[in-house]
């Protein structure tokens, strides 16, 4: 990855040395005593006939902690200046609301922009403004526009995201199409895709899931047999119209493919997609061709993998329900809910407040179904022994996990002061 040069006094990636100063604020806003109690008790809390089991890896990851810490440091460093954040710093409503209360203005992207065009309206910014880049990163066009604008930039882009950028940079440099397992509209995937456009002829294709990857595989095999039809080509172009680089030509650009992924996707699916495309190339053109023209690397971040592994381990135990806490637009949280839903009734709640002990109901996002929310009453039986598992996405703070635990017990009438 090539990062544009910026003056030392306008571009910051390592904070301002104020970590100790803001630590008490961060602890006050995000720490949770209930989570500490669960850790002390082998991640298990039993009161009466209700048991809650917490996955051993959960909540804030290093990249999220770093991004939030830098935002707090930025406010301390520039107490009297306008501070602007390009979109949400992470996908957690509680954290973003806290930043707003601190006077950090969150700017939403423009509704629709072309590749290579900035996604934000920089005419609203002054040179005295301080601009925070979120943990997902920003597109090259936005980075260049900010550099030209001359304002102070605080870059909180996660290191795991930067690693993916380096990978697709190599693909583009070597003439490979970057096949990205992700959501074409997600901030991180947009930023990653923009990295390949630094090179003349750089191209990318984003696949959401294995179903879309199978369409890519089928097209590659049709290329190998010379049986691509006009209708098949048109259908392919329409399917990936919003998920491919300008001028993408599947007849040409699927000849050399390097696989990467949005860091928060389901790890096993990313690996399976890479293998499926590789096998299609081998069937179409032979093993030697595949070896020379197909590359794949697991670029799922370690925190995402750790949380998915911890959920898999927890699901080997008998559970009556699983609560997954995290933003409804958080990809890593959605992936956790998908894993859980395969084996136990699962409720992805955006915030602890979505669990209502008074009515015995909760509001949740239906796992595995795009953008569908629902309400469940009686999700926790009123009587009898129950075991509830709980985990949280990498952008969910401990205090919100703890609140969810308390609300689970309160649904069965267990007093808060009896816990811990």
Task: Please give a structural write-up.
There is one protein chain. With 420 residues, this protein is an alpha/beta fold. It folds into three domains: 147 residues, Cobalt-precorrin-4 Transmethylase, domain 1, CATH 3.40.1010; 94 residues, 3-Layer(aba) Sandwich (Rossmann fold), CATH 3.40.50.11270; 137 residues, 4-hydroxy-3-methylbut-2-enyl diphosphate reductase, catalytic domain (Cobalt-precorrin-4 Transmethylase, domain 1, 3-Layer(aba) Sandwich), CATH 3.40.1010.20. It has 15 helices and 17 strands. The longest helix is centred in the middle third of the chain and has 19 residues. It is globular, with a radius of gyration of 23 Å.
Provide a brief overview of the structure.
The chain has 420 residues and is of the alpha/beta class.
């Amino acid at each position: 990855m090539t990062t544009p040069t910026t003056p030392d006094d306008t571009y910051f990636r390592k904070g301002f040395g104020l970590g100790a100063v803001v630590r008490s604020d961060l602890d006050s806003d995000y720490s949770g005593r209930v989570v500490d109690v669960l850790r002390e008790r082998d991640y298990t809390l039993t009161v009466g006939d209700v048991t809650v089991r917490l996955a051993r890896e959960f909540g804030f990851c290093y990249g999220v902690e770093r991004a939030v810490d830098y935002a707090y440091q930025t406010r301390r460093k520039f107490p009297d200046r306008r501070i602007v954040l390009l979109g949400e710093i992470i996908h957690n409503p509680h954290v973003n609301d806290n930043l707003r209360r601190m006077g950090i203005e969150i700017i939403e992207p423009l509704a629709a922009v072309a590749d290579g065009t900035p996604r934000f309206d920089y005419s609203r910014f002054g040179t005295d403004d301080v601009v925070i880049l979120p943990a997902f990163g920003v597109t090259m066009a936005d980075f260049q526009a900010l550099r030209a604008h001359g304002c102070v930039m605080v870059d909180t882009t996660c290191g795991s995201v930067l690693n993916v950028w380096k990978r697709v940079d190599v693909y583009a440099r070597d003439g490979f199409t970057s096949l990205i397992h992700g959501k074409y509209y997600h901030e991180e995937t947009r930023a990653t895709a923009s990295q390949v456009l630094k090179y003349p002829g750089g191209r990318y294709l984003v696949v959401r899931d294995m179903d879309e990857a199978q369409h890519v595989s089928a097209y590659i095999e049709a290329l190998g047999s010379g049986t691509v039809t006009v209708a098949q080509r048109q259908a392919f172009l329409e399917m990936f119209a919003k998920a491919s680089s300008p001028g993408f030509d599947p007849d040409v650009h699927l000849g050399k493919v390097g696989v990467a992924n949005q860091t928060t996707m389901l790890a096993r699916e990313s690996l399976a997609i890479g293998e499926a495309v590789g096998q299609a190339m081998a069937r179409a053109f032979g093993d030697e061709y595949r070896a020379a023209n197909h590359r794949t690397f697991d670029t799922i971040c370690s925190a995402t993998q750790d949380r998915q592994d911890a959920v898999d381990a927890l699901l080997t135990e008998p559970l009556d329900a699983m609560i997954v806490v995290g933003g409804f637009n958080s990809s890593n949280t959605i992936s956790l809910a998908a894993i859980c839903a395969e084996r136990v009734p699962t409720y992805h709640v955006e915030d602890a407040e979505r669990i209502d002990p008074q009515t015995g109901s909760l509001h949740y996002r239906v796992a595995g179904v795009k953008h569908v929310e629902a309400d469940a009453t009686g999700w926790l039986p009123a009587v009898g022994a129950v075991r509830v598992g709980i985990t949280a996405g990498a952008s969910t703070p401990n205090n919100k996990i703890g609140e969810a635990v308390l609300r689970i017990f309160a649904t069965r009438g267990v007093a808060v002061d009896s816990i811990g």
